Amino acid sequence: MKKRSIKIISGILILIIVIVTIAGGVIYKKFYSPAFPGQKTSYLYIDDVRNYDRLLSQLTSKGIKDILFFKQLASKMKYPENIKTGKYRIDSRISYLELIRMLRNGNQVPVKLTFNNIRRKREFAEKISLQLMFDSSTLLEYLNDSALVASLGFDTTTVMTLFIPDTYEIYWNIPVDRFLERMKKEYKRFWTQERLAKAKAIPLSPVEVSILASIVEEETAKKKEFPIVAGLYINRLRKGMFLQADPTVKFAAGDATLRRILYHHLEINSPYNTYKYPGLPPGPIRLPSISAIDAVLNYEEHNYLYMCAKEDFSGAHNFAVTLKEHHANARIYQAALNRNNIR
Known about the structure:
mainly alpha
């Protein structure tokens, strides 16, 4: 009887061990099974609200296989109490355990932040906010804070020259103040000793180089003309002449689409109107590209003082040394405008 009882007990224990082992194996396999089998690479975004239900909705929309199992495991690992902001990459290979560890540890991926072809602060703030977590109004508030931008070495008018258009790897959840610090580091990295020496030789400060580069880039659609146009404006600055740059008038008018500058535009009372105010305007009229900045630093030496758009509307220009030559070019261009009924 004793032996029989021992056998029964032993059998039960073995059965329990087998069941536990099988169950453990099933659970272990579940932990490491793909959470998004067959799904393409995509991204989860967790903002500073840290809304767990919103994350669950994202996971469901991305095609997670078992949202209930995720919730159970996340609860066991205390993830809902430790949500971190960021942009997270998920693909078909990531397991439930790896997914939760990644989210809980904040192991996010950087974004490739790109900005170019921007004219005004608001446009810049909007473009950046579409790529990073903070909103445009927060960035705009910082850019209009005189004390803050002064700490970066600029004022609220020149601060846009801080931003060098390029592509940067940066974390999506970066705060605004750290974003500006990062841009200042990139600015210092861009302004090498070689570039600083070339600016000093003109002589212009880095901010002034960027302001002039912004005019050059707005003035011509042809990159090969950048150094020529830069040289022309440097000639005018050195002679104490008004720049008389049409793009600055468009900026003062608040209308970059103007195709014809009329006399009433030239009378706009704005420090950006280089027909009324001498020297460079107080700030850039766009974010100048690296190629435009380098074109100013490596300007072409010549005697041109005047330029006029070509009558073929190609975006290229006729350049002139004398006012007489310029007037002849201008008459040809005005006639082309009239023929095409451009007002």
